[in-house]
């Protein structure tokens, strides 16, 4: 934590008035007045979100409503089937062994120490779950959280 604050202090202490914008081109005119520059930048940043939003709305109106229609429009050839090799006990065993021994738990509230002690009991259900996810292409939300 101290290191983080040292980095923040180091970086923020570098800020000086030398970084002021000296001039800005507005409608093909170079403006040197700091108040005019500030007002123009404020106006730009206040309106940019609405401008981008309006642009996205216009783009969406041009697109088809269905994502499937968009896929078919841009991909004329059929997709190849994806096949996954099944997960083996050896792979699960290797993954569990590679976990660091910790008493603290993760999102599943089970410590890695407990997982390692009980791996002979959990390998079979894990293989079943992993292989079903690969076969069906469905991943529970909790697993997506763990990946990210």
What does this structure look like?
Strands 1-2 form a two-stranded antiparallel ribbon. The protein contains seven helices and two strands; from the N terminus they run αββαααααα. The chain folds into two domains: 1-80, no CATH class; 89-147, no CATH class. The protein is mainly alpha-helical and 148 residues long.
Task: Present the secondary structure layout.
Layout: H1 2-12, E1 24-26, E2 29-31, H2 34-62, H3 67-74, H4 89-98, H5 112-117, H6 119-136, H7 141-147
Antiparallel strand pairs: 1-2
Helix pairs in contact: 4-6
In short:
The chain is mainly alpha-helical and 148 residues long. 60% of the residues lie in helices and 4% in strands.
Strand content: under 5%
Principal-axes geometry comes out as flat
> How many structural domains are formed by the residues?
2
Secondary-structure element string: HEEHHHHHH
Radius of gyration: 28 Å
CA-to-CA gap between the ends?
Answer: 23 Å
Please supply descriptive tags for the structure shown above.
148 residues; mainly alpha; two-stranded antiparallel sheet; 7 helices
